[in-house]
Amino acid sequence: MTDTPLKTLLAASLLAGLSAAASAQEVNLYTHREPALIKPLLDKFTAETGVKVNVVFAASGLAERIQSEGEKSPADLLLSVDVSTLTHAASLGITQPIVTPALEKAVPAQFRAKDGQWVAVSARARVIYASKDRVKDNALTYEDLADPRFKGKLCTRPGTHAYNTGLAAAAIAHLGAEKAEAWARGMRANLAKKPAGGDRDVAKDIAAGACDIGVGNMYYVGLMQKDPNQKAWVEAIKVIMPTFKDGATHMNISGLVLTKNAKNKAEAIKLAEWLVGKGAQQQYAADNFEYPVVPGIAVEASIAGFGQPKADKIPLDDIAKNRKAASELMEKVGYDLGPQG
Fold first, then answer.
1. Are residues 194 and 269 in the same domain?
2. Contact criterion met (CB below 8 Å) for 76 and 267
3. Which alpha helices (DSSP H) does 92-212 contain, by range?
4. CB atoms within 10 A of CB 208
5. pTM (two decimals)
6. Which one-letter DSSP state was computed for residue 152?
7. Are 205 and 331 found together in one domain?
8. Helices 323-332 + 162-175 axis angle, to 10
């Protein structure tokens, strides 16, 4: 009977160890993605792996939040919707390389940072929405958005939004700073109204006759088709897969960085690898109408019908370096002030 206390102590220690191991099966994700677009994937990850995902959603500022939280930050991963946000996070010194054999095997080099600081999990093309009735063109370049023939006919979300500063960063990379500024000024001159709302609002405005042409991410077309209240907007537009005159379509990504102080690194890596697995990539394509970053995964049929984006030979890392200049450019030309008098 003298060993009973010892057995009790050992049993208690074992239970405590199991409890600690169980509680460690979680990962803390900060994200700029719309909750509805990422939650189904995270729920499926938890169901398949048993790893709980604790999510903090915010429209902006999460990299700065992680920086201010310092070593006490609970964040293990940051999932964002623009490569410039990911490179910005790395520049703040809050990341560590997210490199594993599984990620390198699954994700082509153009969708991974050269220094390993970020990895893409989905891709999207920034395309042109145009009125089916009022725009006869079926092929346009990004430069055409500044063509005077569209004066008073262009609608976009704010130029300072990440999606449009990303396009402006690509314009700087393709056209050079001087021509990119002329392009941005031309776009402002073509605005029908002060930039506002989001990409869906661009389609809504075209359907209402407020403008004839605009830019938006491809995946919103699929999402609007699924929404009975928005289906009429997408039925009023045609989608044109544009390029710069040198032949490249602007592609951006949603992607991950691993935080420098990640407390749940193993679980964070597990989530990253799961998101580029076949099942998750298929779900990204089917539910979110995004382009898989893993070769061999089919694009959702209704999106595939709009054509294949033409790969940009300029690395995303290099385009992202123009982020600050692009933001300053849109402010310099007064883009968000709307049409000039």
1. no
2. yes
3. 101-106, 162-175, 177-190, 199-208
4. 12
5. 0.86
6. T
7. yes
8. 100
CATH number for the domain harbouring residue 236: 3.40.190.10
Helix (H) or strand (E) holding 31: strand 26-31
Cβ neighbours of residue 15 under 8 Å, at least 6 residues apart? none
Residues 153 and 71 occupy one common structural domain: no
* Exposure b/e, 4-38, CB count within 10 A at least 16 = b: eeeeeeeeeeeeeeeeeeeeeebbbbbbbbeeebb
Residue 89 lies in a domain: yes
C-alpha–C-alpha distance, residues 338 and 305, integer Å: 33
Structural domains counted in the chain: 2
Which tokens sit at 284? 């990204």
Tell me the average confidence (pLDDT) per consecutive run of 10 residues in the chain, 341 residues long.
Answer: 45 43 77 90 97 95 97 97 93 97 96 96 96 97 98 97 94 97 98 97 98 96 94 97 94 96 98 97 93 95 89 90 95 96 64
Residue among 130, 157, 208, 205 at smallest CA distance from 330: 157
The rounded distance, in Å, linking the Cα atoms of 287 and 276 is 15
243 and 261 fall within a common domain: no
Are 154 and 305 contacting, i.e. CB atoms less than 8 angstroms apart?
A: no
- Residue 54, domain extent: 18-123+252-299
Which residue, 123, 120, 125, is CA-closest to 276? 120
DSSP 8-state secondary structure symbol assigned to residue 126: E
Q: What angle do CA 300, 306, 312 make, to 5 degrees?
A: 95
Residue 10 forms part of a structural domain: no
